[in-house]
Specification:
The chain is α/β, with parallel strands linked by helices. Helices cover 44% and strands 14% of the residues. The chain starts with a strand and ends with a helix. Bound molecules: NADP nicotinamide-adenine-dinucleotide phosphate.
Amino acid sequence: MRIVIIGSGNVGSVLGRLCKQNEHEIIQVFSRHVNQAVSLAKELKCGLTDQLNCIDTEADLYLVALTDAALVDLKNHLFLGNKLILHTAGSVSKEVLKDISLQYGVLYPLQSLRKEMTYSEDIPFVIDGNSDAVKSQITDFVKTVSSNFSFATDEERIKLHLAAVIVSNFTNHLYALAEHFCNIEKIDFSLLWPLVKETARRVQLISPAIVQTGPAVRKDMLTIEKHISLLANHPELKALYQNMTDSIMKI
Ligand SMILES: NC(=O)c1ccc[n+]([C@@H]2O[C@H](COP(=O)([O-])OP(=O)(O)OC[C@H]3O[C@@H](n4cnc5c(N)ncnc54)[C@H](OP(=O)(O)O)[C@@H]3O)[C@@H](O)[C@H]2O)c1
């Protein structure tokens, strides 16, 4: 397909590369910052623009990877007739695209994507379209870039996105706090990597509710009190430790 990528951030960059690797032709990228458009366009060997009203209207597919606020505003700047346009947001209705084209939908990557990373495994996509014909077109397209895809309505996708925030963004935040604690306390954070791996592996085999370990599930108050006193100089982490401990104890 001839594709225009709207947005040169993490998702725009990763999707652009994925489409190109799978023999699609990227004809143009849009970024409001011309230097970022130039950098991605060089990599994808395609045209570029930093003006929404200069977007090429001759593509088969438009992939919109903008922040949610910019996505909501897009209808004020773009009209594509009946060209297929898809956004990548987890928590924004597909209807946000209904004034831009007659054929619209969602290509939501259910994966944490960063443009500086490479992805060796198929990216899982959650897709939706405004008609059966559009869903079928999106299915044909997604099969060319990934073997891992599923369908979800707007209502289902926002719930998936919320769960994704908890398992990925919140977990990563806990890693960041633990790394900071280790740095301050002169402990080697990398000693914890096997534990990080094992916890992520196990959750795929057995319900996490069943395999919880640690002082909270054992109701080991002696250890919990020692940990809390160690966190005297880390008030944010202390509050989180107490909340998480209470939550585990309740379950
Ligand atoms: N990254 C992920 O892991 C991930 C996974 C699944 C879904 N998503 C969804 O994909 C979408 C894009 O996420 P992302 O991670 O790629 O975000 P990002 O890296 O922050 O990129 C967002 C893009 O939107 C552009 N933008 C922001 N405000 C704009 C405006 N007012 N007008 C025009 N362009 C504007 C940014 O341009 P500048 O660079 O010029 O600011 C940038 O190109 C979001 O809806 C997100 O929820 C992300």
